[in-house]
């Protein structure tokens, strides 16, 4: 059985990632890319679907005990887990070196004190646990082959096969280090080079040390901000600059429910806000790479902008169900691909334009096609802004006139008007100024409930929506506007959980379906809760903002990682993990609170 979501650590090489449980079990790894089929899919199934367990031998079957301590080595993605046993203390060092050849996952076992018996259990199952590979030895190496894939195990320890699993039983003494490496290679190619674990460890630590040095934030929340930045960097696909929303699929928003989605793709929205956070903290190269990715993905067809793409810009992301996997804690279906790729979500035009505008304002080298793309996007917005859409939350029900979507079309036009006013591009300035005013008036007339003094989820609706918290942050209205303050207070009253966190919107509706067209409920959405903290700071309630922010920080696991949501009933993290859309607003709120001086001593 898989661990709790917060029991996992992230390691990765900026092309894929693995999740390592507190007990030393790797339950999730896709090779060779984030969106490739998993070699270890135990996270979404059982041990039969693949895992790699490393820890003290406990003399019995089943998962070993959790580590007594674990941490990342400084500001890096090198994980250390330590067990204290009756026979001594042992440390396991897990990492994936930034790729220079075959993808590798390296596990170094180090004796700390005493003599500790250890066991490695490696059960590889390709195609999300569906395919049992042919495992055999070639010279001193163990290789698992099935179809197009081969995974090679290198270690100085003795190994043996039993029950379609590769085992190694060994003992470590103080100062002794025994390394295990798996490497992926297409099965028709020559074997990958034998790893150099110690050299790779040194190079990996140096990579992260140098990368973190570029961070320009030095405020009171630096540890939380740096860990979030490292996580965002780990979710970036280095060859193209695309940024995945999360490295996992189908971790449920409601335990046992159907709200299970594949997040291993690049949402324009998520990537754009990630880019903004990186720019604000000194990471210009990532911003440049993402802008180039965007230009390639959109290509010459901005009129057919998708809300999301594959990490290399792929457009076909068809959604399928893997019926042989029982799902995380029996949360079915398990989905790969994402049918939301074909939705209309007008807000992405605003997020993309805002990101391009910020890149321009922070001095990123000019790209003429980026400016041309921005103009093309606004030309499309000009024709379609008044249409209904599926909105930021990708509802599977009927399209509506979502207020947040309209606000973000205003953002797209506003930022482009400012670009023209600065003389950086040519465009129909007066016409687009008029368009900006038309959209603003439309939202204020049709999306605002005067009696309740709050904006609503969509035109003519009574429901609230936490995305309305972005109205002052995007500059649509000033923070001291009574409509903004009324909306913030209404969301606090009607969308907050007992512990003060924020739901995206009401999930209850007629016929057992929520307003999003889906069954079941979900947890508090962490990004929305950070947005509330931001808004509270903006309207002068800075002590309340700080308390909420620090309460949100307490939800992170022991390694500083956040999933998409928080289940207030089960008191657990839920949703895909770790989630870019949670770590980005953490950074943004920390920056705002630091600028305002709203932090404790």
Topology:
Layout: E1 8-12, E2 17-21, E3 25-30, E4 38-40, E5 51-56, E6 69-72, E7 79-85, E8 88-95, E9 104-114, E10 116-123, H1 126-129, E11 134-138, E12 141-146, E13 149-155, E14 160-162, E15 165-172, E16 177-186, H2 197-212, H3 222-234, E17 236-237, E18 242-243, E19 266-267, H4 268-280, H5 284-298, E20 308-309, E21 320-321, E22 335-336, H6 347-361, H7 368-384, H8 403-421, H9 429-446, E23 448-449, E24 454-455, H10 470-473, H11 482-494, E25 524-525, H12 526-538, H13 542-553, E26 565-567, E27 572-574, H14 580-596
Antiparallel strand pairs: 1-2, 2-3, 3-4, 3-5, 5-10, 6-7, 7-8, 8-9, 9-16, 10-15, 11-12, 12-13, 13-16, 14-15, 17-18, 19-20, 21-22, 23-24, 25-26, 26-27
Question: What does it look like?
Answer:
- This protein is an alpha+beta fold and 601 residues long.
- The chain folds into 2 domains: 5-210, Distorted Sandwich (Beta-galactosidase, Chain A, domain 5), CATH 2.70.98; 214-596, Alpha/alpha barrel (Glycosyltransferase), CATH 1.50.10.
- InterPro entries: 6-hairpin_glycosidase_sf, 6hp_glycosidase-like_sf, GH15-like, Trehalase-like_N.
Features:
Glycosyltransferase; 6-hairpin_glycosidase_sf; 2 domains; single chain; alpha+beta; 6hp_glycosidase-like_sf; GH15-like; eight-stranded antiparallel beta sheet; 14 helices; Beta-galactosidase, Chain A, domain 5; 601 residues
CATH class of the largest domain: Mainly Alpha
Per DSSP, what share of the residues sits in E-state strands of 2 or more residues?
Answer: 15-25%
- CATH topology value of the largest domain: Glycosyltransferase
Percent helix, as a range, is 25-40%
- How many β-strand stretches? 27
Distance between the termini: 42 Å
Shape field:
globular
Mean pLDDT: 93
Q: Mind telling me which CATH architecture of the largest domain this is?
A: Alpha/alpha barrel
Class of secondary structure makeup: alpha+beta
Q: Report the major sheet.
A: 8 strands, antiparallel
Radius of gyration: 25 Å
Q: Ranges with pLDDT <50 over ≥5 residues?
A: 509-514
Number of domains: 2
């Amino acid at each position: 059985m898989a661990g709790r979501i917060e029991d996992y650590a992230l390691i990765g090489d900026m092309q894929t990632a693995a999740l390592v449980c507190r007990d030393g079990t790797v339950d999730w790894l896709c090779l060779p890319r984030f969106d490739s089929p998993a070699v270890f899919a135990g996270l979404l199934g059982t041990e039969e679907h693949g895992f790699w367990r490393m820890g003290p031998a406990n003399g019995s079957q089943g998962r070993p005990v959790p580590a007594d301590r674990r941490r990342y080595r400084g500001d890096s993605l090198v994980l250390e887990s330590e067990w204290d046993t009756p026979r001594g203390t042992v440390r396991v060092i897990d990492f994936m070196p930034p790729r220079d050849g075959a993808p590798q996952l390296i596990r170094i076992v180090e004796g700390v004190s005493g003599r500790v018996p250890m066991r490695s259990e490696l059960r590889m199952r390709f195609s999300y646990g569906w395919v049992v590979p042919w495992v055999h030895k070639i010279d001193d190496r163990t290789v698992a082959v099935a179809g197009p894939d081969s995974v090679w195990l290198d270690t100085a320890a003795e190994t043996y096969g039993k029950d379609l699993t590769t085992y190694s039983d060994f003992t470590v003494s103080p100062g002794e280090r025994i390394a295990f490496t798996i490497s992926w290679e297409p099965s028709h190619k020559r074997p990958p080079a034998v790893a150099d674990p110690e050299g790779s460890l040194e190079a990996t630590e140096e990579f992260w040390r140098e990368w973190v040095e570029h961070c320009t934030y030095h405020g009171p929340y630096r540890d939380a901000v740096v860990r979030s930045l490292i996580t965002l960097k780990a979710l970036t696909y280095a060859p193209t600059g695309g940024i995945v929303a999360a490295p996992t699929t189908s971790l449920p928003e409601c335990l046992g429910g159907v709200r299970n989605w594949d997040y291993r793709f690049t949402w324009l929205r998520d990537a754009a806000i990630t880019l903004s956070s990186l720019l604000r903290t000194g990471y210009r190269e990532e911003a440049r790479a993402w802008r180039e990715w965007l230009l390639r993905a959109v290509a010459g067809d901005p009129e057919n902008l998708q809300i999301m793409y594959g990490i290399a810009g792929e457009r076909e992301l068809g959604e399928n169900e893997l019926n042989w996997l029982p799902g995380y804690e029996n949360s079915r279906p398990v989905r790969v691909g994402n049918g939301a790729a074909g939705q209309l979500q007008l807000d992405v035009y605003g997020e993309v334009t805002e990101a391009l505008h910020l890149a321009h304002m922070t001095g990123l080298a000019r790209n003429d096609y980026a400016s041309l793309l921005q103009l093309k996007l606004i030309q499309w917005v000009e024709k379609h802004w008044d249409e209904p859409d599926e909105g930021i939350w990708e509802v599977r029900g009927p399209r509506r006139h979502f207020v947040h979507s309209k606000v973000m079309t205003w953002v797209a036009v506003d930022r482009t008007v400012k670009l023209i006013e600065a003389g950086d591009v040519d465009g129909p300035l007066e016409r687009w100024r008029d368009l900006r005013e038309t959209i603003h008036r439309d939202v204020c007339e049709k999306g605002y409930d005067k009696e309740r003094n709050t904006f609503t989820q969509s035109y003519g609706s009574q429901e609230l929506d936490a995305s309305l918290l972005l109205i002052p942050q995007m500059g649509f209205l000033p923070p001291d506007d009574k409509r903004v303050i009324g909306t913030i207070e209404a969301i606090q009253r009607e969308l907050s959980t007992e512990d003060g966190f924020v739901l995206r919107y009401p999930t209850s509706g007629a016929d057992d379906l929520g307003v999003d067209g889906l069954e079941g409920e979900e947890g508090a959405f962490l990004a929305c809760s950070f947005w509330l903290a931001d808004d509270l700071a903006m309207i002068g309630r800075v002590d309340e903002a700080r308390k909420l922010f620090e309460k949100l920080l307490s939800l992170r696991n022991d390694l500083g990682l956040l999933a998409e949501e928080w289940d207030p009933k089960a008191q657990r993290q839920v949703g895909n993990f770790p989630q870019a859309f949670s770590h980005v607003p953490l950074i943004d709120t920390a920056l705002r609170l630091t600028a305002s001086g709203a932090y404790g001593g």
